[in-house]
Amino acid sequence: MEKFFIIYLAHYFILFPIAKVLFINIHYFVITKEQEREEYLVRKMVHWGNASDYIHIAITLIFLGFSAAPVRIEPFCLIGWTFIIEWDLHTFIFLSFTTTIIAVLGHFSLFYLHRDAYYHKFFSLYFIFQLSLGLVVLSSSTNYMFMGWELLGLSSVLLIAFYEHRTNPLKNAMRVMFIYKVGDIFMFSLILLLLFFHVEDMAQLISLQDHGYEWAMVLLILACFIKSGVFPWIWLPRAMEGPTPSSAVFYGSLSTHIPIFVLLHVWPREWTLLTYWPEVWTVSHPANAIALAIAVCVFSAYVTTHMSRQSSDAKNTIAYATMTQLAIIYIEIFLGFYTLAMVHVVSHGIYRTFEFLRTPSLLHHYHTMEIRRPKKTSTGKHFNLMLPESLRNWLYSLTINEFGFFSLTFDFIDQFLGLTYQRFDRKAAGRYAVMVAIMWIAFGIVIFIFNGYHFYPKEELLIALAVGFTVLSFVNIRKVVMFFLTISCSVGFVYVVLSEKLMSSVNPLPWVSVLCLVFLFAGFAFYSLYTSSKNKEEYSNYTAKLSRSPLSNLLLFALGLSIVDMPGLGNFVAWEYLVHHTATIAPYMVIKGFSVLSLNTMLVFLFYFTNFLGFPEHKVQVLHHYKLDTLHLRWAQKHTSNAFQLPPAG
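-> structure tokens emitted (650 positions)
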């Protein structure tokens, strides 16, 4: 009975959000575009969906409770992969926690975003986020958990860019996207290592210890730190560009807390600092990684505490305070206090959600309610007693500059993705090509060392061509057809490399074919450089110049994501098939292939943001997005050119 109910729960919490995403988009793009009717249906969907979720949680408590029951669903939804559920106390608590927060935020958003021009977009991403939570919380299988992990980042980045008519949200979304993809590479490397040893259950992480790969805990630690914002801690305040509900659900409660659940769920109980303490440590001892992670958390908590005290923005102050508490929770896990960490993460998530939802009325409360109370003593007076004034001033200057060195991270990302330029030209393309080449060489050297100094010229040449087509995609980012051709070639070369590795013993790819592919790349490169030098058109970024209609924009964006194997789209099933069968043969080549796909994914987002979103110069975009929103329409009337006449506001 328990097994069948768990199977039903998995199907409900995965398929129900998918159905809601499809329904809201089909109704919006195909059936009607009346905003009042749309909001009415969304309200009904959210209300009835929340009621259904609560009923399922209550029934789960009655029938399952806190019992432990591992379940395998083969296959899940006819896809062919095994859906593994390690049902335990952590799973039930986090499923209840995420369902409650999602319901509260959904109900709040119905009224907060009333008559907003992007009402449909918010709830589409809201349901995708709910789907990603279901995949991460319920499934411990490598493929489904990683699918939810990536969808979590996708919905997060698109909600940062929620107000698509402004440049700053688009740039910050790209910065966060870059950091997310770095974390995804670490998580994917861990999953690939598990697949190398034929382990498809993330909860069996302890099996790496039997093979002498305990050092792989570093991969999981880094992936969770990056996703939570504990390190580097500078990106989380930049993610506050979205509306208040998205800030609350992503950066106050769920998105930053989900990596902690992953750690609690799969982290072996033997891997704690107190367990290893009596032993004599060597340089390669796994306890060193745990001790270093604790040191990073202590330093991060110290830094973010100072930055939260100096920040003048309400959301940023809460963001820094959130990172402080997350660092403390990670320390509790690494010391073995798992129950304390679970209580801490749930209570902290609820409290931060309330804080973020309260920020819009914070100033009103300050000017009306707080002045009636007696003045409170200032916090932080202990710093005046503990530290001399010169040291306090030095710390203050460091916090204002975000501790110097770490703020340079965004300078690198801006230079890499061309975010500092008003338009894409040869200078931006040249910088991108040089930075990609340097990073790829460094990455190749690391792989070369870990791979036992093995070098295969044919495979390395093919993967280098894939990287070359990625650079050409950046050069052609203004040309729709050429962009899709070059990025398809880049992904295709990755598939060729992995397929050749998989079938090398049967029918290896001849060198003649490789040389033909080299000539193909040379032809594309010559044509791209020739047309870019011939076309002298001034084209600023984020002008929505190629925007025609929301549906066509969305379809092109979805096409790009399907090409680069975003979960749930296009040839993602084929990519997972290649990963599972090539992981035991050439895991390092699979990591290189995934890195190329990560670069291409960032370019798809950059292509979409720079060409279809941003400053509303096109009448079509302005009339569609702002005709029902007086505030945005007035902003558009003020900032757009006088080339066309907008309808009067109101």
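Strands lie at 69-73, 83-87.
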